[in-house]
Amino acid sequence: AQSVTQLDSQVPVFEEAPVELRCNYSSSVSVYLFWYVQYPNQGLQLLLKYLSGSTLVESINGFEAEFNKSQTSFHLRKPSVHISDTAEYFCAVTHTGGFKTIFGAGTRLFVKA
Amino acid sequence: GAGVSQSPRYKVAKRGQDVALRCDPISGHVSLFWYQQALGQGPEFLTYFQNEAQLDKSGLPSDRFFAERPEGSVSTLKIQRTQQEDSAVYLCASSPQREGNIQYFGAGTRLSVL
């Protein structure tokens, strides 16, 4: 069975500071990995994904995540956050060839001025 | 709009009442998912359709929950004899068949059972 652990339920950070949101997963088979973001009163949106190839993946708004197979992690980072990054972030995993997606409990990122 | 549409956005039900939640997926998407999201938690898988076929319903909490997608497009999640523990946000997502399981989510229906 697969599981996803997001180690921090809330992360407060000042604007322009760096941030890391941690995600660890467990699975006995190969997986696809995702980060989704949920802004207030909106649905989840895909932020970035790892399917295969380069283990470092980037989003269009400056976030990046690195797939580390040995540590079964997929931490999300941004070198300088903006107020507009305030949202809930969900890490998710799907085993390759499958469709059932397991989500973590979410990390609420709160960016302060 | 071209996104996933869910209705109603909010639903208040009295305990014991039946409810029906609707999902309009993105046109042409063959895969459709339903999730339940409790307060402060991540989405929990309920069921999955590929076109009109319900391939997995292992996440449905009880036989009071029923989902259908009769023509392979619009889907309805029905909850019979609602209980307070059914209060949650119900999310629908759709996916094109060959995109590595990337899902496109609707805004959800917030169900409150009194």
Protein described:
- The complex is a heterodimer of chains A (113) and B (114).
- Chain A has strands at residues 3-6, 10-14, 19-21, 23-26, 31-38, 44-50, 56-58, 64-68, 73-78, 87-95, 101-103, 107-112.
- The model of chain A has no long low-confidence stretch (mean pLDDT 92).
- Chain A is built from no helices and twelve strands.
- In chain A, strands 2, 5, 6, 10, 11 and 12 form a six-stranded mixed beta sheet that branches.
- Helices cover 0% and strands 48% of the residues of chain B.
- Chain B starts with a strand and ends with a strand.
- In chain B, β7 (65-68) and β8 (75-79) form a beta hairpin.
- Chain B has 114 residues and is an all-beta fold.
- In chain B, strands 2, 4, 5, 6, 9, 10 and 11 form a seven-stranded mixed beta sheet that branches. A four-stranded antiparallel beta sheet of chain B has the order 1-3-8-7, with no helix packed on it.
- Chain B is globular and about 40 Å long.
- The interface between A and B is medium-sized, with 26 and 27 residues.
Element-by-element helix/strand order of chain B: EEEEEEEEEEE
Overall radius of gyration of chain A: 13 Å
Oligomer: heterodimer
Spatial extent as radius of gyration of chain B: 13 Å
Through-space gap between termini of chain A: 41 Å
Summarize the main sheet of chain B. Answer: 7 strands, mixed
Strand and helix order of chain A: EEEEEEEEEEEE
Helix content of chain A: under 10%
Number of strands of chain B: 11
What is the structural class of chain B? mainly beta
Could you tell me the strand content of chain B as a percent range?
over 45%
Number of strands of chain A: 12
Shape of chain A: globular
Q: Which two chains share the most extensive interface?
A: A-B, 26 and 27 residues
